[in-house]
Amino acid sequence: MWLFFLTALLFGCRPVDTPAPIQPLELVVLDIPPGIPDMEIEPGNELTQLRVDLGKRLFFDPILSRDKSISCSSCHHQSQAFADFSPVSTGVEGRKGKRNASTLVNLGWHEVFNHDGGTATLELQMQVPLTEHVEMDMTFQEIITRLAMEPDYVRHFAQAYPENGLSGYGLTRAIGAYERTLVSFNSPYDDFTYRGISDALNASQKRGLELFNSDRTQCSSCHTGFNFRREGFENNGLYAEFADSGRAGITIKPEDRGKFKIPTLRNIGQTAPYMHDGSLWSLAEVVDHYASGGANHPNQSGLVSGFFLTEQERIDLINFLLALTDQKLLTNPTLTP
Ligand code: HEC
Ligand code: HEC
Q1: Which is nearest to 110 in space by CA: 231, 267, 246?
Q2: Model confidence over 105-140: pLDDT tens digits?
Q3: CA angle 85-206-182, nearest 5°?
Q4: Which of 66, 92, 114 maximizes ligand 1 atoms within 8 Å of its Cβ, making it the mutation to test the pocket?
Q5: Rounded CA gap, 167 and 234, in Å?
Q6: Which among 159, 193, 227, 276 could bridge 115 via Cys, Cβ 3.0 to 4.6 Å?
Q7: 300 CB-contact burial (10 Å; exposed 0-12 / middle 13-18 / buried 19+)
Q8: Is the pLDDT of residue 18 over 90?
């Protein structure tokens, strides 16, 4: 007995060649230029390195899906600014969804999530893919039971969320913490606007920026601010009749039919195909859609009323949209486990 204690004392508590542990409260520093408002962080879920690393592991781990084949990253690819390259995504057992997977950048500044704004926080949003039949098809109980069999996860949860440990609370908070670190402010547009580098945009892109902000195109009436979006839902006249009722699916109001969350345009060159159903394949098609004045749905916004662009102007507008691509985000190795 005595010998056992002595051995435990000598060897049990001595870390042998382990790397210096991450301090529980060490915060992740986000790459955000001056001029951008602070992101709101839920008290108790400050972006510590431990939490973000846990969220990152979970985001890329197919253990969260029924047949262990699909992770969040199966539909949200870093190279596509965490959007999907298919019009609609494929979940477990090849099941197809109905909507195009959104980019996940700068979500810390969004007030609602999903194309219909059906969820109000990131922590609530992820319950959709985790439990949805055509996505990951799990229950929280099943996920926690699975993770409980992985000692490394159990330890990581206990370190990141000492009060809750392995739990639905920690799971959603950790993935939410990781998602909030997916900030994108390193495009040529950002260098031009926030870092004062006047030649970060070429002449064509500068003309495109002016067109984008002009009364002619009205683009910036909806795609505005540092995220190229304002809060709210609009019908941009994609169809005369919508198969997907959009916002009306949540509010049940006929005037919300065909209205969708105004999406960000950051990294738009990487996130094709476009719109809630992934029905437009290129930025040229998108510009042509707006230029045509839309399909005249009864709820179509008056801001989508058509315009004429010369061939050079059309190229300029598209070149400007391509200047919203943040190469650093697409390749940053610290965003993958
Ligand atoms: C099978 C594909 C698929 C998987 C797996 C998936 N997503 Fe998604 N994601 C989508 C689709 C499709 C949408 C759009 C849903 C909608 O609008 O109804 C979406 C939307 C989102 C949004 C909303 C973004 C916004 O701007 O409103 C977030 C956040 C998100 N997903 C996070 C996650 C997380 C976290 C996971 C893993 C737990 C995950 N997704 C797994 C396909 C997927
Ligand atoms: C009345 C508001 C409004 C105006 C004006 C507007 N948009 Fe949009 N835009 C939207 C909405 C809403 C969506 C999402 C539609 C959907 O999901 O089906 C969207 C989607 C897009 C998309 C696809 C985004 C994605 O991730 O799939 C692009 C690109 C885009 N708009 C560019 C433009 C450009 C360029 C202009 C100006 C020529 C413009 N928009 C004018 C509201 C607007």
Answers
A1: 231
A2: 999 999 999 999 999 999 999 999 999 999 999 999
A3: 40
A4: 114
A5: 37
A6: 276
A7: buried
A8: no
Residue 216: burial class (beta carbons within 10 Å; 0-12, 13-18, 19+): middle
Higher per-residue pLDDT: 234 or 19 = 234
Q: Whose structure tokens read 């069999």?
A: 149
**186-197 pLDDT, tens digit each:** 999 999 999 999
Report which residue type is found at 279: S
Tell me which residue of 264, 269, 266 sits closest to 322, measured CA to CA: 269
Main-chain phi, psi angles of 245, to 5 degrees: -75, -10
Residues 49-73 have a mean pLDDT of 98
Cα atoms in the Cβ-side hemisphere of radius 13 Å centred on 73: 18
- Provide the 10 A C-beta neighbour count for residue 46: 12
- Which of these is catalytic: 26, 46, 135, 311? 135
How far is Cα 190 from Cα 227, in angstroms, rounded to an integer? 11
* CA angle, 240 then 246 then 248, to 5°: 100
Give pLDDT, residue 17. 59
Ligand 2 mutation pick, 104, 113, 234, 245, max ligand atoms within 8 A of CB: 234
CA distances 23 to 19, 101, 188, Å, are: 12, 35, 35
What Cα–Cα distance (Å) separates residue 297 from each residue in 232, 234, 238? Answer: 18, 12, 8
Phi, psi of 110 (to 5 degrees): -85, 150
Distance CA 300, CA 304 (A): 7
pTM over 0.90: yes
In this structure, the residues whose C-beta lies within 6 A of any atom of ligand 2 are 115, 217-219, 221-223, 234, 236, 238, 260, 262-263, 265, 268, 271, 274-276, 286-287, 290, 301, 303-304
- Supply 99's token pair: 């909507």
